Amino acid sequence: MITCGFVGLGLIGGSIARALKANRKDIVIIACDPNEETLKLATEQKIADEAYPAPCDAFTACDYIFLCAPVSHNDENLLKILSYRKKDCILTDVGSVKTPINSLIHSLGLTDCFIGGHPMAGSERIGFANSKAGLLENAYYILAPAPQVPVAKIAEFQGLVASMGAIPLQVESQKHDYVTAAVSHLPHIVAAALVHLVQDHDDAQGLMKSIAAGGFKDITRIASSSPVMWEQICMTNTVNISRLLQDYIDALGIVQKELQEHDSASLYAFFDGARAYRDSFIDAGSGPIKKDYSIRLDIPDEAGSIAAVSTLLALNNISIKNIGIVHNREAQEGVLRIEFYEEDSITKAIQLLNRRGYVTHI
Ligand SMILES: NC(=O)c1ccc[n+]([C@@H]2O[C@H](COP(=O)([O-])OP(=O)(O)OC[C@H]3O[C@@H](n4cnc5c(N)ncnc54)[C@H](O)[C@@H]3O)[C@@H](O)[C@H]2O)c1
Ligand SMILES: O=C(O)C(=O)C[C@]1(C(=O)O)C=C[C@@H](O)C=C1
């Protein structure tokens, strides 16, 4: 059996714990979290075999200890958990910034037992109640092992990560912090700033807020993320974020100048270049952004509607990868989203559903 300890069992800790429990039979989970409701839920749902409000003796059984609180709290928790760490236990974290914890590990002389981690998947939702076993599926899980961790220990941990459904990828801490500042941290600032812009410019009736459609909602979904988490990320990856933010401000300044000068050729090149590069992300066969074979359809708001659709597809040998209600209606139309394994299934499903009178949307 492998005993995994979790210090913080929110969205990410909870999702890792669920994935391990779902995919393996040999996992024991010991968790601590200051949130009482989380401890209750995790025990009731049989995700945590043992749950405590704070680090305690029980953690001396752990083969791995995952630090899964917001980044600065992970540093504090690392210090608290050390007295409960058995020899050979691997310490790891899931924090979105890697350099500060890496420095702390060096200063504590723990360079033979720490593997920094960062799953490149998540959501704007918070807490254990929103955690999912499938959250990390096919996502890169960045590993930044300290220099003296034995190769065999790194390989074992990679195996554990793979069994969560994630793809382990080794990246050095400082490089990690620069790269994630560009693809994750800056976008969260941009999203929050856009939301503030609309709030500050809307009229008394909130017309902007009412009519905001897919474009605004797609680019600002992440503005609903945890302010505690993002404040701590900004406070710990400040230099990288600030440098990239300056480059971004400069780029916006150039666009503003092109607008003021009615420079249509430059504006066209700006959008065209972005489109080509962004499309190349989607077209990649592997990587975190996968091709999405999904459709949406309108269904009556009554019991059995989802079952009727899934049965119809199953009877016609069309396999469903995922099915669920679209709660936020960002897509404007259709309330049921169905994801398939391959492109072919989309055409077949649409023909079948349309013949039965369903209105479908791609
Ligand atoms: N949310 C994401 O999309 C995402 C993705 C990858 C990595 N991360 C990283 O994962 C970590 C956790 O983020 P999350 O999204 O799961 O947040 P979360 O708010 O859902 O969960 C954090 C959990 O830590 C607990 N906690 C808070 N303070 C604590 C403390 N001092 N000691 C112990 N537990 C404490 C909270 O009760 C909560 O259950 C962060 O370091 C974040 O940078 C987040
Ligand atoms: O999908 C989201 O909601 C996320 O913000 C996830 C996201 C990101 O892509 O920026 C957020 C923080 C992380 O550390 C890793 C992933």
TrEMBL record:
InterPro entries assigned to the protein according to its UniProt record, in alphabetical order: 6-PGluconate_DH-like_C_sf, ACT-like_dom_sf, ACT_dom, NAD(P)-bd_dom_sf, PDH_C, PDH_N, Preph/Arog_dehydrog, Prephen_DH
Database matches in Pfam families: PDH_C, PDH_N
EC assignment: 1.3.1.12
Reactions catalysed according to its record: prephenate + NAD(+) = 3-(4-hydroxyphenyl)pyruvate + CO2 + NADH
Top enzyme class: oxidoreductase
Pathway: Amino-acid biosynthesis; L-tyrosine biosynthesis; (4-hydroxyphenyl)pyruvate from prephenate (NAD(+) route): step 1/1
GO molecular function, one term: prephenate dehydrogenase (NAD+) activity
GO biological process: tyrosine biosynthetic process
Keywords, ordered alphabetically: Amino-acid biosynthesis, Aromatic amino acid biosynthesis, NAD, Oxidoreductase, Tyrosine biosynthesis
Domain of life: Bacteria
Start and end residues of each Prephenate/arogenate dehydrogenase domain: 2-289
Residue ranges of domain ACT in the record: 294-362
Family, per entry: Belongs to the prephenate/arogenate dehydrogenase family.
PANTHER family: PREPHENATE DEHYDROGENASE (PTHR21363), PREPHENATE DEHYDROGENASE [NADP(+)] (PTHR21363:SF0)
Listed name of the protein: Prephenate dehydrogenase
Lineage, opening ranks: Bacteria, Bacillati, Bacillota, Clostridia, Lachnospirales
